[in-house]
Amino acid sequence: MKSITSPSDLAINGAVAAFEQILHVGRPNIGSRESFNAYVDALFASRWLSNNGPLVQQFEQQTADYLGVKHCVAMCNGTVALEIAIRALGLTGE
Fold it and tell me: Which end of the chain is more exposed for a tag (fewer CB within 10 A), N or C?
């Protein structure tokens, strides 16, 4: 593979692509479409899309069981998880 030393070496700028086909690094794996759709249908039927709904509770319990811990609390992203951890530990300052 040719080393990239300038923007003109990038395929997006007209250079030869490094891969013949698009390389999907993070392609989602949702498993069975029927199973996925059943969860989505149940979600909309419950009219509870967030904030500790039944699927969140199920996810937290299954994760806690898998990890062998008493509690698991799901967060929306890593930043919020870190902020909650900092508050729980009583950390202050810069």
Answer: C
